[in-house]
From TrEMBL:
Coiled coil: none annotated. Residues 2-83 form the Pyrroline-5-carboxylate reductase catalytic N-terminal domain. InterPro entries: NAD(P)-bd_dom_sf (IPR036291), P5C_Rdtase_cat_N (IPR028939), STEAP_metalloreductase (IPR051267). Gene3D superfamilies: NAD(P)-binding Rossmann-like Domain (3.40.50.720). The lineage of its organism: Bacteria, Bacillati, Actinomycetota, Actinomycetes, Kineosporiales. The keyword Oxidoreductase applies. This is NAD(P)-binding domain-containing protein. Keywords: Oxidoreductase. It comes from the Bacteria.
Length: 206
């Protein structure tokens, strides 16, 4: 697939490198580094791709996509791993989510929230968090979720580790797991873990 990764930081580099290694055509879209090898302007990167990865600060996602434009975003799949915090590291949008905001503002884009509940190292190395590993997905478009689940497989996520929570309204739940994530980092002294769901092996309700 043709994938535009917005952002050249930790998440963008990790996802871009792994997806390219899996055979995808990956370009980065950057405010600051366009012209370097494999790096375009944000608008050029999105225009040339089917999937857009928003590996940029959550509080800047909407304004960045506004600058890129509705016309360019039309019908794109937006894989959104972002998290949005205030400078004090509290939730920037209590009771709301970046994923929902993108979908509401760009109704013709197909937003899938995923990978936001873990450290970037685990995003591309889920087996570091075995035996339990969960990648949540939230989105309104079933086909977009199927495509993103395929990309998760390319990142190393087994199919049964992917938990579809439902519509993009459920992105609120995973974005608001951030305080749990940071409290766990402080408690464990490492970010190499995963927030996962444990189920009875039969999968049946008790
Ligand atoms: N780090 C993690 O383990 C982790 C885990 C889960 C979720 N996330 C989320 O994933 C996103 C990326 O995190 P990261 O750790 O990769 O951050 P990062 O290392 O700081 O990189 C973010 C990148 O976004 C771009 N950027 C910076 N300020 C921007 C702005 N004002 N507007 C548009 N683009 C801007 C920059 O790329 P250019 O200069 O090339 O444009 C920068 O390299 C964030 O939303 C973060 O909360 C991170």
């Amino acid at each position: 697939m043709k994938i535009a990764v917005l952002g050249t930081g930790k998440v963008g580099t990790a996802l871009g490198t792994r997806l390219a290694a899996a055979g995808h055509h990956v370009v980065h879209g950057s405010r600051t580094r366009a012209g370097e090898r494999g790096i375009l302007t944000q608008r050029e990167a999105v225009a040339s791709s089917d999937v857009v990865v928003t590996a940029i600060p959550g509080t800047d996602v909407l304004s960045t996509l506004e600058d890129i434009g509705d016309d360019v975003l039309d019908a794109k799949i937006v894989l959104d791993p972002s998290a949005a915090f205030t400078p004090q590291m509290t939730m920037a949008y209590p009771g709301d989510s970046v994923g929902q905001q993108i979908q509401t503002r760009f109704p013709r884009a197909r937003v899938v929230k995923t990978l936001n509940t873990m450290n970037f190292t685990v995003m591309v190395d889920p087996l570091a968090s075995v035996p339990q590993a969960t990648a949540f997905v939230s989105g309104d478009d079933a086909q977009a979720k199927t495509v993103v689940t395929g990309l998760l497989a390319d990142l190393g996520w087994p199919h049964d580790s992917v938990l579809d929570l439902g519509g993009i309204n459920t992105a609120l739940a995973t974005e608001h797991a951030a305080p749990l994530f940071f409290a766990t980092v402080r408690s464990l002294g490492t970010a190499t873990f995963n927030i996962s769901i444990s189920r009875h092996p039969s999968g049946q309700p008790r």
